[in-house]
């Protein structure tokens, strides 16, 4: 069975090695405009029940 199964797990050595490599596995994709729009949407969405 391949390591691509649903319940595949990394070994501790692999996790430590990837943490020590200094690479950023996820790129930043949200900019200032997106974050601002999300904040305004959260404020409007929360609203006031009074």
DSSP E strands, number: 0
The dominant shape is elongated
Spell out the helices and strands N to C: HH
Between the first and last Cα atoms, what is the distance in angstroms? 58 Å
Helix share of residues?
40-55%
Strand content: under 5%
| Helix-and-strand structural type | mainly alpha
- Please tell me how large the radius of gyration is: 20 Å
Low-confidence stretches: none
Mean pLDDT across all amino acids? 79
Sheet with most strands: none
Q: What can you see in these coordinates?
A:
With 50 residues, the chain is mostly helical. Helices cover 48% and strands 0% of the residues. The chain has two helices and no strands. The protein is elongated and about 50 Å long. The termini are far apart.
Which SSEs are present, and which pair or pack?
Layout: H1 12-20, H2 32-46
What labels would you give this structure?
single chain, 50 residues, mainly alpha, 0% strand, elongated
Short description:
This protein is mainly alpha-helical and 50 residues long. The protein has helices at residues 12-20, 32-46.
């Amino acid at each position: 069975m391949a390591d691509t199964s649903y319940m595949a797990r990394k070994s501790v050595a692999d996790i430590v090695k990837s943490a020590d490599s200094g690479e950023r596995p996820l790129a930043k994709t949200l900019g200032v405009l997106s974050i601002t729009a999300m904040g305004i949407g959260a404020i409007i969405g929360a609203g006031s029940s009074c």
